[in-house]
Amino acid sequence: MRLLSQIILLLFFCASASAEPFILQGKVEHSSKVNPLAEGLRAGDQFQESKLKEPRYASSWFMIPAWFAGQFQVDQNVITKIEDCRSGKIQRPNQPVTSYGQELHGFQKDAQNQIWHFYVESGTSKSEQLRQITYNNIDWYGPIRIDKKRVIMRIMATSLLVDRTSGVIVDSFRREDIKTYEPYEPGKIKVTYTSKSFDSFGRPRDLQEGIAIHKQIAPFQEIGLLDNVDYRILFRDYLLSNNRKELVPQALR
């Protein structure tokens, strides 16, 4: 799935349609620790695919401000802090790094001309490289704060790196990313991000902080069919299931 792959590469709130235009939550902080990975999924273990959780797929919708909508590409990226959580050592490189990536925000408009974004809350993917296989599981992904001037997204994912020859798990960890999007200047968004990783026992491993500028490369356009998925029908069903019939676009009634 293209959308799930984008979320993983970019690395318990469920958005619901409400009378308020945007979602607003409290202070956003990283977890101090997470649950350890199960035995058989830690570095040094012989990998067995049966040990993985059953793949699951969940999705939802949330409303977004107009400045956040469209297709964006990373234009600048600066890592401002790297902290080793075990030794306490801190580095402040403050140097630009080469980054590639695109993000698509906004899928449909409702009957009141408000823009909605579709997102995958959880899912599983597998990618194969020359010497290793990487298994990624999104444990949770979604918005934790949205207002007219800010969008904050959080992702918690588990990654296993498996040697292709021996079948041994080379590394396994969980990573929690928090990204704050704010309007910067016309056609650009400032993204402040933090990324914290935890070892297979749930202990903090490292924390990175940075700032990026995302440049809009295409304006918002409603998405109908993509990868054999009809997002118009998904959007209509979502609104109806949340008792918001008045928001269903006329063309979908």
Protein model, in words:
- The chain is mainly beta and 253 residues long.
- It has one domain (2-252).
- 8% of the residues lie in helices and 49% in strands.
- It contains two helices and 14 strands.
- It has helices at residues 2-10, 231-241; strands at residues 58-64, 70-84, 90-91, 95-96, 102-105, 108-109, 115-128, 132-147, 150-163, 169-185, 188-198, 204-218, 225-226, 229-230.
- The strands form two sheets. Strands 1, 2, 3, 4, 5, 6, 7, 8, 9, 10, 11 and 12 form a twelve-stranded antiparallel β-sheet that branches. Strands 13-14 form a two-stranded antiparallel sheet.
- A hairpin with a 5-residue loop joins strand 2 and strand 3 (90-91).
- It is globular, with a radius of gyration of 19 Å.
- The chain starts with a helix and ends in a 12-residue tail after the last helix.
- Residues 1-25 have low confidence and may be disordered.
- Based on CA atoms alone, the radius of gyration comes out at 19 Å
Low-confidence stretches: 1-25
Distance between the termini: 28 Å
- Total of helices: 2
Structural class: mainly beta
State the helicity in percent bands.
under 10%
Sheet-strand content, in percent, reads: over 45%
Pick out its properties:
single chain, two-stranded antiparallel sheet, mainly beta, 12-stranded antiparallel β-sheet, disordered N terminus, 8% helix, 2 helices
Summarize this, please?
This protein is mainly beta.
Task: Give the helices and strands, then pairings.
Blueprint: H1 2-10, E1 58-64, E2 70-84, E3 90-91, E4 95-96, E5 102-105, E6 108-109, E7 115-128, E8 132-147, E9 150-163, E10 169-185, E11 188-198, E12 204-218, E13 225-226, E14 229-230, H2 231-241
Antiparallel strand pairs: 1-7, 2-3, 2-4, 2-5, 2-12, 6-7, 7-8, 8-9, 9-10, 10-11, 11-12, 13-14
